[in-house]
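This is your field. Have a critical look at both lines of this record:
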Amino acid sequence: MSTKQHDIYTETPLVPYLIAERVADLGDKEMATYLTERAERHYRDNEQFRKGINSKRNDPRQYLQMYMEHWKKAKDQFNKFKKQTHGKLQF
């Protein structure tokens, strides 16, 4: 059984890295790379995310930017928590 590999670059007009650079604060290449890779992975693996990007009701740039802003805030909060606990996370 063959499954289609979805690709955000060939199936949409989006250039995720450009959106990620804007969200990540220009110059933060590590965050931009993280956001870009996450967008690529979500588009490839998550049908609901793909539907949202490709929906006629959404502007795909704004939709992706909204997700990237959310991912950035979550990662920033996690890093802040990790720094406060000196890297000793206990769950």
The mean pLDDT is 91. The chain has five helices and no strands. Residues 14-78 form one domain.
